[in-house]
Amino acid sequence: MSTSKEAFKKFLVLGILFVFPLVIYLFFASGVNNFAHLPILTEEVNDITEWPSLKGERHQFDGNISIVGFWGNDLKLRKGDAFNLNQKIYKRFYQFDDFQFVMVVEKGQEEAIEQILVELQAGAATDLSKWKFIFGSNDEIQVLFDSFQTDVKLNDKKSTSTVFIVDRVKKLRGRDDDEEVGTLYGYNTSSVAELNKKMTDDVKVILAEYRLALKKNNSNRSK
User: Fold this and answer.
1) What's phi and psi for 27, nearest 5 deg?
2) Contact 73/208 with Cβ under 8 angstroms?
3) Closest Cα partner for 37 from 220, 221, 216, 202?
4) What are the distances in angstroms from CA 51 to CA 78, 80, 151, 196?
5) What residue numbers bound the domain in which 5 lies?
6) Most buried residue, 27, 98, 160, 201, by CB count within 10 Å?
7) Section 41-62 average pLDDT
8) Cα 217 to the chain's mean position, in Å?
């Protein structure tokens, strides 16, 4: 009788040693798969292919992962936000393919933007070529902003400290279950804490999402 009890105990211990780690792995793997998707908050924002830019190039959201900001003609206030964004987000992720920062600025502010770029470059030995600036009228800026369909408002200078994540197919990404605000459409660049705690994590998620999609596509092609 004692022999059968001892055998049962050994079997139970072995089961715990082998099965429990597997259960834990499956639990966390499931959690990662569920987490590794940044919710879609707006199905399609307007593209920017017709907007003039700082260097005369044409830019677009389609095919890129874009961090989008609206600076209007409020550049003195946005300058500090630009430094926060450059230090906390841009320097960390700019080497990812098809990743860009797009700032929407009022026409006539080109020289001020050039100066901001000079100051950004002086503060960090980083390639700033993925900072893109497009220029429009107040009405054009408002129309583009309205297409994002958020709860954020532009101030009277067509500016906000909030930046947004737009994916490769022009969908606005963010959080639909944020612990503080519920739906988080964008990220406050005036808050280093928010950039560190929320935006950094969400950019990681969307980049990981696209890396996974790319691996799957490459795997399917090789079959």
Assistant:
1) -65, -50
2) no
3) 202
4) 21, 25, 24, 31
5) 1-35
6) 160
7) 96
8) 22
One domain, residues 17 and 92? no
Neighbours of 65 (CB within 10 A): 21
pLDDT of 222 above 90: no
Q: What is the pLDDT of residue 188?
A: 98
C-alpha dihedral, 65 to 67 to 73 to 78, nearest 10°: -160
Do residue 79 and residue 5 come from a single domain? no
Give the distance, in angstroms, between the CA of residue 15 and the centroid of all CA atoms in the same chain.
Answer: 43
Question: What integer pLDDT is reported at residue 184 of this predicted model?
Answer: 98
Q: Is there a single domain that holds both residue 3 and residue 110? A: no
Do 167 and 66 sit in the same domain of this protein? yes
Q: Based on the domain organization, do 24 and 97 belong to the same domain? A: no
31 and 55, same structural domain? no
pLDDT, tens digit, 9 for 90 and up, residues 184-205? 999 999 999 999 999 999 999 9
Residue 178 CA to residue 22 CA, distance in Å, equals 30
Residue 5 has pLDDT above 90, yes or no: no
As a dihedral over the C-alpha atoms of residue 193, residue 198, residue 200, residue 205, rounded to 10 degrees, the angle is 170
Do 144 and 181 lie in a common domain?
Answer: yes
